[in-house]
Every structure is written in C-alpha cells, then in structure tokens.
Amino acid sequence: MRKENASSAGYRVINSCREQLKQNGSTEQVPSQDEDIFGGLDFETTKDVEVPKLLIDQVIGQDRGVEIIKKAAVQRRHVMLIGTPGTGKSMLARAMSELLPKEEMQDVLVYPNPEDPNTPLVRVVPAGKGKEIVDAHKLEARKRTQAKNTVFMMAAFAIILVSFITGEWLMGIIAVLLMFILLRQMMPRDELLVPKLLVSHSGEVSAPFVDATGAHAGALLGDVRHDPFQSGGLETPPHERVEAGAIHKAHKGVLFIDEINTLRLESQQNLLTAMQEKKFPITGQSERSSGALVKTEPVPCDFVMVCAGNLDAIQGMHPALRSRIKGYGYEVYMQDTMEDTPENRRKLVRFVAQEVVKDQKIPHFDRGAVREIIREARRRAGRKGHLTLKLRDLGGLIRTAGDIAIAEGAPLVEARHVIDAKTMARSVEQQIADRYIEQKRDYEVFIREGCAVGRVNGLAVVGGDSGIVLPIMAEVTPAQSKEEGRVIATGRLQDIAKEAVQNVSAIIKNLTGQDPSSMDIHIQFIGTYEGVEGDSASVSIATAVMSAVNQVPVDQSVAMTGSLSVRGDVLPVGGVTYKIEAAAKAGLKKVLIPKSNMGDVLIEDAYVGKIDIVPVSNIVEVLEQSLVGGEQKEGLLKAIRSLIAKRPSLQLPDAFSSKANKCP
Which of 46, 411, 425, 520 gets the most CB atoms within 10 Å of its CB? Predict the structure, then answer.
C-alpha cells in the first residue's frame, strides 16, 4: 500500500497544474495520472526485462548518434561527440569497437638495430605470433648463455687447477677474474638481442578499445624510458626502453579521448599526423630524457578516433584536427532529453534493468521502484513532455536505491528505497543550496513575510539541479549625470545577466511612461558569491525597480522567476521545478512562474501543498500577484493599463506564443 501511495502522491501537483491550466484556457499537455507509465511493458521486476547483448543496442535516446556510429564503424570514419556529461558519449565509443569489421589483429615487435642502436627496428606480425617469436628468441638466448657459461666454467676450473699444481693459486684466481671481465666486455649479452613485444592483441576477439582521456604526451604517443645506467655495460638497450603509446595500442581499433581540448596543441598536431599517416615513430617526449636520441622506425597506428567533450571543447581543438574529423568523419551533438513516449518509457525500464545487470551488486527493481525512476527522469528533464538523458546521474540514483535495499536486506528495490535515495544521493550543489537556504534564513538575508519597497525574492538554479532563493534589492536616486541616468548592478553579473539588467530602462519607459534618464537605478543581487548568469531574474529585477520607482511595497512571501521581454511578456526559463522547491524550503507561500513552464512542473511529494504555484504571462499579472498597498498598487496598475490602451503596439498577450502575429 505504501508503494502505491508514494507513486500516486507525486501526481497531485501535476493534476493541480492541469486544473490551473484549464482555468486559464491553456492547451498545454500534462501527463495523466492514469497513463500507462511503463509504455505497455508487462513485467513484475526488472529481472523479467531482456537486456540486449550488444552495447550499441543498450544506448538510449541517442538515435542519431547510434545511426552515425554504425555507419562510421563500417567505413572506419572518425567521430566527434559533443554534449552534456553523462549522456552516453563513452558508451557510444565503446560500442563502436564492437561494430568495427573483424580485421586481422596484429602484434608489433621492436628489435635492436646493430647498425644504429638508437633507431630500433619495428616488425608487424599476426596477433598471437608476437609472443611465440619472443619466447623462441628467449629460449635461444638461454641456450647460448648456458653454452658460454659451460665453456667459461671449464676454462676457469682448468686455470685454477694448473695454478694449484704450480703453487701460483693467487695468480690463477686473478687470471679467472680478468677472463670474466674481458668476456663480459667483449661478448654481448644474449638477452639483449631478444626483441620486445611492443603491442600484443593475442586472444582478442573484437577490435581494441583504448581510453586515452587525460593522457600526457608520452602515454598518448609513446615514450622511451629513462635509463640511469648509460655506460659501462650495465645500460638497458634502446629497444627495451621503448614503450607504446595509446595510439599504437589502438591499432585496428578505437582510440577514445574525452575532453579533447585538454590535450596540448603539440599533442593534437602529432595526433593529426598519426591519423593521416597511420603510423607514428616512438621517441623520447622529454629532451632531458636519456631517450632523446632514440627514435624507432614508424610504428603502425591505424585507429579510428572518437573524441568527445562539452560544447566548449570545440574552441580548444586544433583547427586542423577538427577539420580532419569534419572532412573524413562525423560530428554528433548529443541529446540531453527525449520525448516522453510509451516507446521511450519502455527504454527507461530497460535502462534500469541494464544498470542492475552491470552493477551486479544490487537487487532488481519492482514496478513501484521503476515508476519512481521514470518520474524522476521526467522531473530532471526540466521540460514538459520529455525524459532526461543524463543517464549517468540517473544510474547513480539507481545504485544508491539498490544499496539502501541491500542494507535493509530487502530482496527487491521498492519505491520507498528510491524515494530515500533521492535524499541520500543529493549532489554537492544540492547540499550547498540547502545549506545556503538554511544560513540565509538564520540571518534573515531574505524575508518570508510582510512587505518591503524595492525588495523581491528571486529564484535561481545552482549546478543545474539545485534551486536557491536570490534576494534582489532596487533603489532609485536622482541622476548624478547631467546627460542621462544609469543602471548600476552589483553581484558579479555575467554577460547575459548584465544585458537583462540593461533592458529594465526600456521596460520602465514602455510600461509606465516614466523617463529613466532622470534617475539612477541601483540593483543589488544579495549573496551571489558565485556570480549570476542568465536572464531568468529579469522579472524579479523589473518588479523590484517598479516597486522602488513608485514606492509600492512587494509581498515578501512571494518568490518569482521568469525572463521578461522589453514588451513585458514573461517568457519561459529553465529549472522551474528546482526553483519552486527552493521557495518551498525557504518557507515562502507563493511562487510566480511563466505560464509556458506549467507543463514542466513536477515537484517532490514533500513540497506538494506547501506553496501556491501561480502561472503568469505578462508583467501586469506579475505586479497584480506580488505588489501590495491598496491605492498605490491600483494606481500603478491603472497607469500601466492606460498606457497600453493608448499604445496598441504594447498590448500584452495572455500567454507567450512562438508564433508570429499575422499582419493586417
């Protein structure tokens, strides 16, 4: 019974949103409580769900990426995967190694060069033959060494025997030692002539996959080990000190490099050379190394490169390297959400089963637990009608829920375990946000009751999955400049946030008819030590400024978020669910969000009923819901409505629409 309650309670807020949307005449689609959340999949536990054997078939939501990887594998094309961490870039790369044509794997041997010891020779043989060749050379070397040792022992015994007979035993011992030294200096050690197995693919049934993420130049391109003994017959021969790089180990396979922009430009240039020539000699990567003079013959490195990174990785790439990928491969931008369809929900059920099988430490999930995972996927998507594809984070929640079930000795993971895991598996940003709210409440940085002029409780998101209350204060003073007034904002604002602040002047002039050039507008973001970016606080800024300009108080039990256009439209923003939860944690009573975001709301059960969610579509509705003051408030709203009536071009729509108005 507890499982059903836990699952159904989460839909109360959705049904509440649906009723509010109907009252406002909206046609937004919100998931129904009675829908088939499993997409028609019949199972009792995830043990009943079949998990595909091939890795490529386990990839979820990246249909375009899967299609490209399949084509690239057949044609041996390079691929660049760009997108949010945790969306499956490394999984696609590993899957590609399974799809590569089963070419003949090769071993690489490095031999001493009698003519030039600093230029070791390279030989390529079929996979498995390399070890046989090395073993044969070692056996032959041991035989020769044993034969030499036998001759030496016989000669030494004869010398010592003669010396004792003649009574010159001391001279005999000295003669044996001199003979030993001369033989060691004049005759090379047989083991030094044994080749080194540089790259071995013995026993591999599929193409190799080498993860070179974060590798330094030596690990990526190969290196020559340092030798402290460089003379006197104790030195290690050059061919023995040669070490293969990741590009050589990935020969006939996949070389994966995440965060490609972190590689030095010199390494990227050498990587480009290796991609073009399909072979690259190994040399010492440090000029101070004893291997600086050692350089092998070109070593085969015919690999397929899959590089990955966030969007900023493109800017840090060597232009020629990216051009090579674009010209001879594919670029893929990874999706971070997928549509909430029955088919995709079935894929999420399979994802839970996959994670259980991969982990091998946690029990399977029952239907109630899977239902909670799908609900969390909807919540984390932050977009109506979508499911998150940040599956690495979702996998962490699955494992945490499994650990909780194991600790209780439960045979299956149930819905209550998943609900408990949400609290236990909070990100660092969520923990910081909770501590932030707690500290700000203790020191009354934001106010939860009463009213104040020019003070608004804005909302923001930290780390992508944590909301915080962002107090904003505004003060208006006579302009100090004779030319025009200024808008002065403090709080470590980034570019987009600064642009949003600058729009305030246009909004005041358009909607109130007041001339901002005669005043200086001071705006302060309180406690923003990490800085502010984005325009989702522009509704809060405009409300605080209008309150300060007209001396109309703001209800401090109200929080708000939304992007504001210069015409007064409230536009959708991201992270509304996390912002609503932050307002509820802070003890606020009402939160204003863009009407277009109502379909995105899916708050946790713990916050249902603790805060009123009010959708707004324009600044007039925002002021109606947030301002107090009787005649002062009505006077300001009347002035705005009057100005709008006189200027038809400023008419505010009931809800934001992406469709352009038809011209008469």
Answer: 46
How many residues make up the chain in this entry?
664
In this structure, what token pair is assigned to residue 475? 């003060």
Q: Encoding tokens for residue 135?
A: 């073993």
Instruction: Tell me if 472 sits within 8 A of 455, measured CB to CB.
Output: yes
Q: Is the pLDDT of residue 22 over 50?
A: no
Q: Confidence class of residue 533 from pLDDT cuts 50, 70 and 90?
A: low
DSSP state of 444: T
Q: What is the C-alpha to C-alpha distance for residues 383 and 390, in angstroms, rounded to an integer?
A: 13
For residue 473, the one-letter residue type is M
pLDDT of residue 137: 83
Q: Are 467 and 581 in contact (CB under 8 A)?
A: yes
Q: Active-site residue among 579, 585, 595, 633?
A: 579
> pLDDT averaged over the chain?
81
Residue 405 near residue 412, CB atoms below 8 Å: yes
pLDDT at 662: 41
- What number of CA atoms fall less than 13 Å from residue 440's CA on the CB side? 23
- Whether 12 has a pLDDT exceeding 50, the answer reads no
Counting residues of the chain whose pLDDT is more than 70, the rounded percentage is 82
Segment 643-664, tens digit of pLDDT:
776 655 555 555 444 444 443 3
Could you give the 3-state DSSP secondary structure of residue 451? strand
pLDDT range class, residue 188, cuts 50, 70, 90: low
CA atoms within 13 A on the CB side of 537: 36
| Residue whose tokens read 């010398």 | 159
- How does pLDDT run across 431-456, given as a tens digit for each residue? 776 676 666 665 556 788 889 998 99
Tell me phi and psi for residue 99, to 5 degrees: -95, -15
**Would residue 279 show up in a list of annotated catalytic residues for this protein?**
no
The CA dihedral of 328, 329, 331, 336, to the nearest 10 degrees, is -170
Q: Which residue has the tokens 């991609």?
A: 275
- Count the neighbouring beta carbons within 10 Å of the beta carbon of residue 440: 18
CA distance 60 to 66: 9
pTM (whole model) above 0.90:
no
User: Of these residues, 536, 538, 557, 617, which one is catalytic?
Assistant: 536
Q: Tell me which residue of 230, 212, 229 sits closest to 221, measured CA to CA.
A: 212
Q: Is 464 exposed, middle or buried (0-12, 13-18, 19+ CB in 10 A)?
A: middle
CA-based Rg of the chain, rounded to a whole angstrom? 35
Cα 28 from Cα 599, distance rounded (Å): 6
Nearest to residue 454, comparing CAs of 523, 539, 526, 528?
Answer: 523
pLDDT at residue 23, rounded to an integer = 47
Known active-site residue 358 = no
Please report the pLDDT score of residue 227 as a whole number: 74
Phi, psi angles (nearest 5°) of residue 602:
-150, 80
What is the pLDDT averaged over residues 291-296? 80
Helices (H), 278-411: 319-328, 342-359, 367-381, 391-408
Strands 223-224 and 242-243, how do they pair?
antiparallel
Which amino acid belongs to residue 146? Q
Return d(Cα 344, Cα 224) in angstroms, integer.
50
Per the structure block, which two tokens stand in for 73?
Answer: 């594998």
Report the alpha-carbon distance of residue 477 to residue 95 in Å, rounded: 63
Query: Do 576 and 601 form a contact (C-beta atoms < 8 A)?
Result: yes
For 228, the 3-state DSSP assignment is: coil
For the cut 70, the answer to whether the pLDDT of residue 130 exceeds it is yes
pLDDT value at position 28? 44
DSSP state of 532: B
